[in-house]
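Shape matters. As here.
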Amino acid sequence: MLGDAELKAIWNAAGEFASEQATTGLAIQFALLTLQRGGEIAGIHTGEINQATRAWTIPSERTKNHHTHVVPLSDQALEVLRAAYGTEDWEGYAFPARKGAKGNFIRRDSISKSLRRLTKGLGIEDATPHDFRRTGATNITAERIGVPRFIVSRLLNQLSDTGGAAAVTGIYDRNAYLPEKRKALDAWAALLIEIVE
């Protein structure tokens, strides 16, 4: 898990990195804000983003558990996407691959490698994109924000956690918990920005 000082250092370094390598620097900030998996972040496309409802719908074929996952987007996450697209007309992948690279979007390991380079320069040992999920989840369920673990499991698209309810409940409960997830991610984004500022 990352402490506040490490979060601040990584966020600021990713911002500086974005000025020379915009794609991965912004992807790192987006990962910190949304707490989603690296591969899902790498492939985010305008077809998955609804700016009006401030939501990102990751199709089932792009999620680890093969369930469609709706991620509410905080104001800060939308700002990062605006910077990534660079224009009013969002089109294509938010984090495109360099010209000549295979595929249309950056690879998941590009985010990991960039983060490794950043953290090595900062003297932070063994920080990975997965640590963002762990750190965010812990802060969201802790006293700092106080969201129930069940909602955080939905936020992270971990459908196996029933929050203490009977396992069969997960089979019948098709609620996406979007308002609760939005509240949690908005609170996390506000806390993260407070930390980095």
Summary: The mean pLDDT is 88.
